[in-house]
Each structure stands twice: as C-alpha cells, then as structure tokens.
Design goal:
Elements (H helix, E strand, L loop, with lengths): L42 E2 L6 E4 L27 E2 L2 E3 L14 E7 L10 E9 L2 E6 L4 E7 L2 E8 L2 E9 L17 E7 L2 E8 L2 E10 L4 E6 L2 E3 L4 E4 L10 E9 L3 E10 L3 H11 L3 H16 L2 E3 L4 H14 L4 E2 L14 E2 L4 H4 L3 H8 L1 H18 L23 H9 L8 H11 L4 H8 L6 H19 L3 H10 L7 E2 L4 E2 L9 H4 L7 H7 L3 H11 L16 H8 L18 H4 L3 H14 L16 H11 L1 E4 L4 E4 L6 E6 L2 E8 L12 E7 L2 E3 L3 E3 H6 L2 E7 L23
Parallel strand pairs: 27-31
Antiparallel strand pairs: 1-2, 2-4, 3-6, 4-5, 5-10, 6-7, 7-8, 8-9, 9-18, 10-17, 11-12, 11-16, 12-13, 13-18, 14-15, 14-17, 19-26, 20-21, 22-23, 24-25, 25-30, 26-27, 28-29, 28-31
Helix pairs in contact: 3-18, 5-6, 6-7, 7-10, 8-10, 10-11
C-alpha cells in the first residue's frame, strides 16, 4: 500500500465531466446539475484559512474556463487556461457562491500598469497538495504555496528592464455579470522598503493583509486608477460605491536579471493588520520552507488512510478524493470578525446540506479534534449571530441558505456527542440546539406539523431525534422524551398511498430524490410504504432496474428537456447531493445485495482521472467523501453513530483512527470495473468473530482492529435477517 500523497491530482474536477459512457445501472441515472466538479488546483493547506490560485474570473471558483451555469454541460468563457493574476480565498466544488472571495490579486508583469487585467495563457501547469505552478505566456514562472493563515508567491522573471509585481486590492468575486465584489472601505499603507499592509471590508467582513516582498532595490509605490502615486505612503477610502470604484493597490518594480526570483509573502487576518503580521511571521519563512512544511502536513493528513489500489488510476482517484475531503471547512482560530472573544472559528461551511452526511462524518472519524473545534465555532455563531448555520462563509448577510435545509448541524453534533471528547459544554450546546429547532421552518413544523418544502419536515424530525440523543447524554430525561415525541413528525411528510413524500416544492430534485433518506425509524418508514417488497420495488424503479439508458442534458438545456429528465424520477447518479445516501436504504429492507450493485455501479462509472473526472459539483468535499466511504466499504449513518457495511472497492485498506489502526481485508475480491462483476458480501468477521448484521456502531468501529469481508459473485443470506437499528426496533431485528 503506497502513500496517497504522491497520487493526488488537484486538477481532477476542474473541467467539464469527461467520463467513459456509463454501463448497466449507471446508464439509467439522470444528471440535473452542472456536469463539472467546480474544484480548483490552487495551493491549499489542510482545513486552512487561505488558498491561492490563478485567476481567470471564471465561474464559480475564479479559476478555469466556464461561464455561469446551473444545469447541463458548462458553457465556455475561455477556450484555454488563462489568468490575469493570482488571488486568495476560493471555494472548493460548490455550485454557486459567485461574488465571494478571490481577494488581493497579485500579478507579475513586464508591461505598463495599463495592462493590468490582461489575461495570459497558463502554460506547463503543475499542482500537488499545497503547491501550484505555471508559466504565463509573458515568460514569468509563477509558484504558489500557503500556510494555515498565509500565502507565499515566488515569481521567476526573464531579463527585463521593467519587471513589476502589482497587487490589486480592489478586485474580488468573478469576471462575469453581477458577480464582482466591491470593497465598502479600504486602506493601504507602505511601512518600510518591501513591507506594506492594508485592510478591505468585503461582503461585510474586514480582511487585513500584511505583505512582505523580497526584491532588493525595487521601488514600491501605491497606485490609484492605474496611475502611480510617487511619494504617497497611504491610501484611505472610507466609503466606496460600486458606481464610482476605481482600481487601487500596490506596485513593486525594477529591473530583473534572467531567472531572478521575487518572493511575495502575505499574512491574512479578520482582526486587523497587526494580527495579519503576526500570522505571517508565525506561518512563514522562505518559500521553499513553507512549501515543505505544508507538504508535510498534507502527508500526515493523507496518511490517515492507505489502500491496496488495483491500479494507478484507482490510487489517483482515491487519493484525490481524500484530498478534496480535507480542504473545507476553513479553520481560522481566534479570527472571528463578528465577536471579540478568542476561540474556535471556521468559515466556508458551505454547504452543510452537502457535507453533513459524508464529509463531516469523515472529519469526525479521522480528525475528531477538528470536529470539536467546528462544534465550538458553530455554537459561538449561534450564540453571537442567532442561528446554527446551514451554510456559512467569510461574509455577513441574511442569506444563510435556509431554503436548502433545516437544523443540519444537529446531526453533526449528535455524532460528536457520542465520542465523549473534551472541549464541548453539552449543557450549553443543548440550550442552542433546542432553541434553533424553533427558528425559520421549525416554527411551521411545530405549529402545523409539517414544513414545506417537505424535505424540511424530514430535516426537523431527524434533528429532534438527534437532539434527543444529546439530551439523553446529558441526562435531561424529560427534555429527551419531549424531543423524541416531536421526532415522530416525519410521518406527516409521506403519503401512504404511494410510499413517497407528499407533493411539495423541492430543492434541486423531486420527491423521489428525497423519499429514500435514512431516517431514525426506517422500520416504520418501510412499513408505511407497504413493507419490504413494496419498498424495494420503489427503490428498484428509482435506481433504474430494467430501465432504458438516458441521455444527459447538453449545453444550455431547454426547459422542456429538463422537465422531461425530472419526470424520469431517477437517481441523480452523484451529479447532485439530495439522494447521496439512498443506495443504503436497501440495507433496511434486507437487500444489501442491491446496495452492492448500486454502489459498485457508481464507483466504477461516475469517477475517473483527469480534469473531467467528477460527475458533478464536489460540494466542499461532500462528493469526494462519498467516494472515500464507498471505496472502504463503509457508510456513516450521520447522526446515529452507525456505519453500514458493504463490499469495498479495494482488497485491503488501513485507516488510522485515534484509537488505533483499523484494517479492512477481504477474500474473494474482484476489481470494481465498468461492466465487471459485482462482489457481494458472503460473511463478515470482526477481529475474528462472525458478524451477521450489516452494520457496526461507532463505538465498535473505534475498538475494532480488523474487519474481514468474504466476498463472492452471488448474493448471500448475509445481512438479510438482522436490520440496522430503528427507533421502533433499536437493536435491529428479524424480517
């Protein structure tokens, strides 16, 4: 089992989906969302505050080729990779952040300041964890690396009399209509030769930078409206209006020798220039040292999992999936711009509805200390800003994405509560968890017994169940009973006549996509649908058993085309997130063989190498984390401290948990390939003892040292009799 660090390809997901034609079940799945991963190849630190990336202004990260798009094949904004400079702070894989981030653009130039904003071709691009490099068509070689709160650029110039590095403090967002960020106010100060600092207020947040440039003998000046300001040492803008904005920033200029390198080091803070300076000096030495330290951190993080990959391509896809799973949230301890106390802070918790089922459980499993920090940040956000966020970024504003979901942090916190880790006051947490259930859509749930969009009814019922478990943990039995009673409200969301959700509006899907959520009482859910056979029949129809292949949307699909696709009522094939967990619903009906067929079809058909290797938005690592779990043969039932078992996609893996190493081994393994045979679990042994049930608890997972699965080419009786727990039958039971 080779280390995964060398296998990571940060370019995966940066281009339009380009996978071989799907076969079998996967050919029947329909993709409603953009067919692109929306990732970027820029330099990032594991869970770091800062990223640095070439900037073309394209949608949605600022890197790449594509125009604004919400469905189908993305339309081109450029026909080749280009950049006008290098910016900081990018999302990873989400679908529509648009104007946020891409601040403090740094551009190496050989021409006049009037050329600022010109795009140059990006040649010879290289990316690895924590490092990006490319040569601009101007001839300047550009390298980027980052620390947790800093970035370092290194530019290698050709011989030139007018080399310069321009920092544009006025730019932000994207170079497409209605997507530019304009600072409300700003100031810049030259402190001494090669040293400057400044602060801009963007989207309601103060972002400070301390900047040091290693270019002895070069002049440094401020500039405004593309004109130099000789002798000036400060620029101050107390109020900037979008209609009157003129670009402004810093410039460092002088002659360059052939192969001369210039380093630009930037420390960032949301709490002023002094803290930005301290962050820089804490994070950074020279470029080479910073790159090595960040690479070492990535090796440690990616070393948490090793797999016996069947091919180089599989190692690359898996290593990159794990890498993409460890980029967000952005942790920025002691940096909250909204309150003055010290302590945990995190942003880019975008988007909770994508990550709460896959990526956050992976973080909790591998890095529980990170989850404790995130819990503290979420609770502080709730206390200071009034709600547990559904989505959160480095920006203020009322649009906290509440339409997409309700009370999803409760699921994350319920899993974390079971670990008995220090650092969280659960009595304090209970105050906010219970109060948050009564906000926004929660009021409809309490008053009317149902909330629309109807998926919010499922969110809230599940959140009541999760919060009841936390109340039980803190020994508040009356509150736990009250919350458990309210958790029964999921039933009102379903129509017993169809076994599906009632008619409603839905976010990025239809009632079929949301009907197979893993609830806390799947036993009663299946009974409501008419029992095992009827429930499996619904799932088979949803996953396209015996259905004809479908045609995916193209560029700018018509309303008629999209309506016809939604009318298929089909699994979205990991192109989108509402039905991520649906394949494991079969487990609760005694059909783990069906789970194996669907999951292996997804692993074999929906992921690949190259820029087009993802079927849809990576969603802050939510999609990538799904692949990690599926490859290992585990799936977390978020909020229930439970893992469902399935045939893994590798013969052997080792996961380094805080409690010790967990090895997952197999006999009878066959490689997972497009059009290849399906492997079914025949039996499971946990540390040598037979396990007949298709699940293990989180507590067991932390104690187990070896999980051995015997696989075979035909379905077996394993997992058909004992079902995963439901609240109406919490121990699992016979069919």
């Amino acid at each position: 089992m080779s280390p995964l660090y060398e296998r990571v390809d940060p370019f995966i997901g940066t281009g339009a989906t380009d996978l071989p034609a799907p076969q079998g079940l996967a050919a029947t799945w329909w993709w409603p969302k953009p067919q692109v991963g929306n990732t970027h190849p820029g330099a990032v630190h594991p869970f770091g505050m800062v990223s640095a990336c070439p900037y073309s202004g394209a949608y949605p990260t600022g890197y790449g080729l594509y125009d604004f798009n919400t469905e189908g094949v993305p339309d081109l904004l450029y026909d080749r990779p280009v950049a006008s400079g290098f910016t900081h702070f990018q999302q990873s894989g989400t679908g529509a952040i648009r104007k946020y981030y891409n601040y403090f653009r740094v551009t190496p130039m050989l021409g006049p300041l009037d050329d600022l904003g010109t795009t140059w071709d990006l040649l010879d691009e290289v990316a690895e964890p924590g490092y990006y490099a490319a040569t601009l068509s101007s001839g300047v070689r550009c390298e980027l690396t980052v620390g947790p709160k800093s970035a370092v650029h290194r530019y290698t110039f050709p011989a030139n009399d007018t080399a310069r590095i321009v920092v544009d403090a006025s730019t932000g967002g994207l170079a497409i209509p209605h997507s530019r960020t304009v600072p409300l106010k700003a100031h810049l100060t030259l402190l001494e030769p090669g040293v400057a600092q400044g602060e801009i207020h963007v989207e309601g947040v103060p972002l400070a930078v301390h900047l040091e440039v290693d270019a002895p003998g070069w002049r440094q000046l401020l500039w405004y409206d593309r004109r130099l300001m000789p002798g000036g040492t400060r620029l101050d803008f107390d109020y900037i209006r979008p209609t009157t904005l003129r670009p402004f920033g810093l410039i460092f200029m002088g002659p360059s020798r052939a192969e001369q390198t210039v380093e630009v080091r930037l420390g960032f803070s949301l709490r002023g220039c002094t803290t930005a300076r301290d962050n820089l000096h804490r994070d950074v030495a020279a470029f080479t040292d910073r790159r090595a330290r960040t690479a070492s951190s990535w090796r440690d993080h990616l070393g948490k999992v090793e797999i016996d990959a069947g091919s180089d391509d599989q190692a690359t896809v898996f290593g990159t999936a794990l890498y993409h799973s460890l980029i967000k949230p952005c942790f920025a301890p002691d940096e909250s711009p909204s309150w003055t106390t010290e302590g945990p802070y995190a942003f880019d918790i975008c988007t909770m509805w994508d990550i709460y089922r896959t990526q956050l459980p992976l973080m909790t499993t591998l890095f529980p200390e990170r989850s404790v920090a995130l819990a503290g940040a979420l609770l502080s956000i709730c206390e200071q800003e009034g709600n547990l966020p559904i989505g959160y970024r480095m920006a203020k504003g009322a649009d906290r994405f509440s339409r997409q979901g309700s009370a999803l942090a409760h699921t994350f916190l319920a899993d974390l509560c079971q670990l008995d880790l220090p650092g969280i006051d659960w009595d304090w947490a209970m105050v906010h968890l219970e109060a948050d259930l009564r906000r926004t859509y929660g009021e409809d749930y309490l008053v009317h017994g149902v909330a629309h969009p109807i998926s919010h009814t499922l969110d809230l019922a599940y959140a009541y169940h999760c919060t009841a478990e936390i109340a039980r943990k803190v020994r508040d039995r009356p509150l736990a009973k009250q919350l458990r009673d309210l958790a029964h409200g999921w039933r009102a969301a379903y129509d017993p006549a169809t076994g599906l959700l009632r008619d409603s509006t839905f976010y990025e899907g239809g009632r079929w996509n949301y009907s197979f959520r893993l609830l806390h009482d799947m036993r009663a859910r299946i009974a409501l649908a008419g029992g095992d056979e009827a429930f499996v029949g619904l799932l088979d129809r949803f996953f396209g058993y015996h259905a004809a292949p479908v045609t995916q949307p193209g560029v700018a699909p018509s309303v008629t085309e999209m309506d016809a696709g939604y009318g298929l009522c089909r699994f979205e094939g990991l192109n989108n997130e509402p039905d991520y967990e649906a394949p494991w619903s079969y487990h609760y009906a005694g059909r783990p063989d069906r789970t194996a067929e669907v999951v292996q079809a997804a692993v074999a058909n929906q992921f690949g190498t190259g820029r087009g290797g993802l079927p849809g938005n990576d969603d802050s690592g939510g999609l990538s984390a799904w692949y990690v779990w599926a490859t290992l043969g585990l799936f977390p039932v978020a909020g229930q401290n439970l893992f469902l078992l399935n045939a893994p996609a590798v013969a052997e893996s080792t996961t380094r948990l805080p409690s010790g190493d967990l090895s997952i081994t197999t006999t009878g393994f066959e490689p997972v390939e497009t059009g290849g045979p399906v492997s079914y679990v025949q039996s499971v042994a946990v540390d040598g003892k037979t396990l007949e049930r298709p699940w293990i608890s989180g507590r067991e997972l932390r104690r187990v040292r070896n999980l051995h699965l015997e696989l075979g080419p035909r379905p077996s009786g394993w997992g058909t009799r004992i079902r995963p727990p439901s609240t109406s039958d919490p121990t699992g039971g016979a069919a």
